[in-house]
Amino acid sequence: MKHPVTQRLYDYWDALRDGRPAPDRSEIEPGSIRSILGDTFILELVDPQTYRFRLAGTRLCALHCRELKNRNILRGWTEEDHEALATLLAAITEDAAAAVVGLTGYTERGQNVDMEMVLLPLHIPGEGCNRVLGACVALEQPYWAGMHPILSQTVKSVRLIWPDERPAFLSTNTGRTARTVPAIGRETDFVPGSIAIGGRQVQHLMVIDGGKN
């Protein structure tokens, strides 16, 4: 992770989960991350193609020049990137993966800004990991921020992280034998602890063969 905001949110989430696949949503204390709240958000899984902003920080909304609450984070991407991000979010909510996404946002005037986004699963008792805690921050603040809205975005890189060095389902004897995780856009960038070894590329996806514990 390149930015202190994404690093701090990941460290907070990792400490809070304390060895579990994900912390409970109710355990998030805004006061503990007050300095980065403006860049953070929480998504709600509605269906495989809809991950709706339930909360979005003021700095993040200002960068987009609009309120993001209730908007679908999968809007405003190319078809290829939309598919990859939907699969990435499924890996987060279903398998308790974490992810870091490098992206570029574009205004209608052709201005662009490079950003970094971290996505982390949150657990709801009785419902599973159907919330996602995240942060998205510009790597360098553009002079036009707050004046010209970001209308489209493209993925530059994706880093899929297994905090416990394996997907959660491999530790629960579920019998699942395969898993798809996103192709890594224009950069293949699995960090240690991922299970990229033995994967195979299929169009825009990386297919990973798993199995019982």
Care to describe what's here?
The chain is an alpha+beta fold and 213 residues long. The protein has a single domain, classed as Beta-Lactamase, CATH 3.30.450.20. 18% of the residues lie in helices and 35% in strands. It has three helices and nine strands; from the N terminus they run αββααβββββββ. Strands 2-1-5-4-3-6 form a six-stranded antiparallel beta sheet, sandwiched between helices. Strands 7-9-8 form a three-stranded antiparallel beta sheet. The radius of gyration is 17 Å and the shape is globular. The relative contact order is 0.17.
Summary of the model, kept short:
The chain has helices at residues 4-17, 58-64, 79-95, and strands at 40-47, 50-56, 98-107, 112-124, 128-138, 150-161, 178-182, 200-202, 205-209. It has 213 residues and is of the alpha+beta class. A 6-stranded antiparallel beta sheet has the order 2-1-5-4-3-6, sandwiched between helices. It has a 3-stranded antiparallel beta sheet with strand order 7-9-8.
List the helices and strands and how they pair.
Elements: H1 4-17, E1 40-47, E2 50-56, H2 58-64, H3 79-95, E3 98-107, E4 112-124, E5 128-138, E6 150-161, E7 178-182, E8 200-202, E9 205-209
Antiparallel strand pairs: 1-2, 1-5, 3-4, 3-6, 4-5, 7-9, 8-9
